[in-house]
Amino acid sequence: MGRVLDDAKSCNTDFLYYSGNYCPYCTALKRLLKSKGLSFTEINFDDERSEVRYEVVSETGHRTVPVVIDNRGDMPIFIGGFDETNRYLR
User: Fold this and answer.
1) What is the pTM assigned to this prediction?
2) Count of domains forming the chain
3) Residue 5 binned pLDDT confidence (cut-offs 50, 70, 90)
4) What CATH number is given to the structural domain containing 64?
5) What residues make up the domain containing 19?
6) In terms of Cα–Cα distance, which of 30, 21, 81 is closest to 56?
């Protein structure tokens, strides 16, 4: 995980997630993380160069947003999207 690992290491938050404009699941994820008292960094694919999206998809295999990374341990962990994160945090 080159790009994802670099992004995760550069933020000092519990979670990193990649989002897109007008994404209801990204909005729901933000609410979920806030409700759990977890900090997060958001990188919006629509605000970045197009290669960022391609790198993240290539590294994770996840083609939709959000793409969620748990950044709390020694190494970042790719979780998946909103549904996977919702189950993961129960």
Assistant:
1) 0.94
2) 1
3) very high
4) 3.40.30.10
5) 2-88
6) 81
